[in-house]
Design goal:
Oligomer: homodimer
Order of helices and strands of chain A: EHEHEHEHEEHEHHEHEHEHEHH
Structural class of chain A: alpha/beta
Strand order of the largest sheet of chain A: 7-8-6-9-10-11
Radius of gyration of chain A: 20 Å
Number of domains of chain A: 2
CATH superfamily of the largest domain in chain A: P-loop containing nucleotide triphosphate hydrolases
Number of helices of chain A: 12
Distance between the termini of chain A: 37 Å
Shape of chain A: globular
Helix content of chain A: 25-40%
Largest interface: A-B, 37 and 39 residues
CATH topology of the largest domain in chain A: Rossmann fold
Number of strands of chain A: 11
Chain lengths: 330, 330
Amino acid sequence: MRTPYLLFLGDAPEFSMIKTAAGIREWRPEFSRAQFRLPGCGVDLGLPDMTPAEAAAEGVGTMVLGVVNVGGFISEVWLASIVAALEAGLDVASGMHQRLADIPIIAEAAARLGRTIHDVRQPKQVFTPGNGAKRSGKRLLTVGIDCVVGKKYTALAIEKAMRARGMKADFRATGQTGIMIAGHGVAIDAVIADFISGAAEWLSPANDPDHWDVIEGQGSLFHPSYAGVTLGLIHGSQPDAIVVCHEPVRTHLLGLDYPVPDLRTCIDANLAAARLTNPEVRAIGISINTSRMGATEVDQVVKDIEAETGLPCCDPIRHGASKIVDLLDA
Amino acid sequence: MRTPYLLFLGDAPEFSMIKTAAGIREWRPEFSRAQFRLPGCGVDLGLPDMTPAEAAAEGVGTMVLGVVNVGGFISEVWLASIVAALEAGLDVASGMHQRLADIPIIAEAAARLGRTIHDVRQPKQVFTPGNGAKRSGKRLLTVGIDCVVGKKYTALAIEKAMRARGMKADFRATGQTGIMIAGHGVAIDAVIADFISGAAEWLSPANDPDHWDVIEGQGSLFHPSYAGVTLGLIHGSQPDAIVVCHEPVRTHLLGLDYPVPDLRTCIDANLAAARLTNPEVRAIGISINTSRMGATEVDQVVKDIEAETGLPCCDPIRHGASKIVDLLDA
C-alpha cells in the first residue's frame, strides 16, 4: 500500500466505530498524514482534516477506510468519497467483508483511472492444508479468554519492546486492522476452513534461529463462534511462547450468554492445544486489559495474577510489554 | 444430480484416494452404474469399466469425480476426461475445493453443450458465525483419532441402525462424499473459517425432542492440518452423544509424521471440547476400523477396548452399529 495514508472516518458517530483508523494512528503515526470526515462524524484522531484532493497534493498515496460497522458493508454514504479519492489520484484500501472490487462504480473508476484498490480481508494467496512440519525461528502467539480483549495490541507492544532491545522481531497480522498496520498478513478468519493452519504456517515461514515472529491471535478456544479459527491458528503458528490476554472485570463472552473461562483453565487449554505442533511451548506472560479499572485496583490485580500463575503480568497500554519480553531476552 | 452415475477413478494409484467413489458405491449401489479408469489407476470398485460415451449410451446421467487428493485440486490429467463426459451428454459432479466452474475449458464446454456441473463442496448458503444457543432435538457426532478412520461410515451405519428400529434419525453430511450420498449437507471444510460453527448450527436445526441428527465428523482434534474444522464442527453440533472412531493398528496420522493419540486421551479431549456448548455430552461408543486386522484379532481388540473404556465397541462394517445404538434406545 502506497504511504502515507488519508484515514477515512466517514460518518462514524463514536470512537468504537473507527478502530481500524485508531489502530493505524497509534501504531503507524508516520503513515497517518490526515483524516477525512463527513458531516455527522463525531470523532477526531487529532490529524489535519483533508479532502482527497488536498491529501493527494500533500503526497498521500492511499485512502484507508478506517471505519467499521456491524456486517462489514460499504455504506452508500461513503461511495462518493471513495470515487473522489480515486479521481484525486489515491489508491483505496478497505478491511470490510464487502469488497470494493465488487461495487461497480468503484471497480470502474479504479480501472479507468489506473488506481489500485486493496480489499485486505480477501486472501490473495492460494493456501494448502497445514503440514505440521517444524520451522526454524521462534514464534510467540497471543491468545485470550475472549474476543476483543487486546491480542493485537499486545502483539504489537511485544514487537515494539523486542525491537527496542535489539531483538529480531516481526509482528504477523491475522486481522484486517493488523494487516493495515503491518502492510501485509492474512485475515485468518476469511480463509477457507480447511486451510486455517496452512495459512498460519504461510504467515510465519522459516526464519533465523534467533528471530521472533509475534503473531496476532484471533478469537478464543472458549468462544463457541470462533474457536475453530483459534485452534487452527495455534496449530499452524507452532508457538514457542504464548501470552494470554485477559480482562479481569469481564464476566461474559462478547455478545453471548456464556461465562468467560477462568485464567488457569484458559492457560492450560491453550498450552494443551499448542503442544500438538510444538511440545516445548511455554506460557510466558499474562497481558491484561484494564481500560475499565482504576490504577489502585490494577496494581492489586497484577500482584494477584502473578501470584496465581507464576507469570509476569502487565497491561501493555499502561505498562508497555517489557516485563513479558524480559523472560525471552534472558 | 441426474442418476445413475459413472464413477471417475482417474489415475488414482490406491484405494485411499477414491474414497468418494467407494462411499457412493457402498451406500448408493443403485446409482453406481459404472467406473471410468485412466492408465495408471490401481484400484477397482468391481463395476463395469465404461468410457463416458459408453456410459451415456447405457443411460448414465452424471459423471462423479470419485477421486480425492490433498488440497482438493482438479488434476490436469483429468481435464480431457471431464470434457469428454460433457461432450458425451453427461453432467459432471465434483467435491474438490477447486471449482469445475472456474476452469475455462470445462465451463465453456458445459455452457456450449448445455450440461450441468455440480461443485458440491461450494456452500450455496450464506452463513453467519455460530451463536451457541441451545436447540431442541438430539445430536450424535462421530469424532476420531485421525482423518479417514471411518467417521462418515459410522454415522451412516448408526442412522441405518436407528431407522431399523423405528427411531427418528437423519444423517447430516459434512463432506463431499457424504453430500453426494445424502443429496444435501454442507462441506464444512469449505466454508469461510469465521462461519464453521455457524454452518454446523445451520446443518442440524431445531427438531423434535426424540429426533436424532447423526452428524458426520471431520478431521480430528489431534490432526494439525484440520483440527480447527473439527473444533468448530463440535461446537456448532452441540452433540448429546459422541462416538469415537478408531483404527487400532494405526500408528501415525494420515500423511504426517505425527503419532496417533491414545484412545482415552482422544475421548477426553473431544468431551472437553464438546462440553463448551453442551455440558451434558456423553461418549456412547467406540467405532473401530478393522480393515487391516484378522477376525481373531478383532474379537480380542473389541474386548480390550470395552474393558478399557467401559463403552460398547464395534466395527460397523463387520458388526453393524446396533451395539452402539442400544445405549440410546434404552
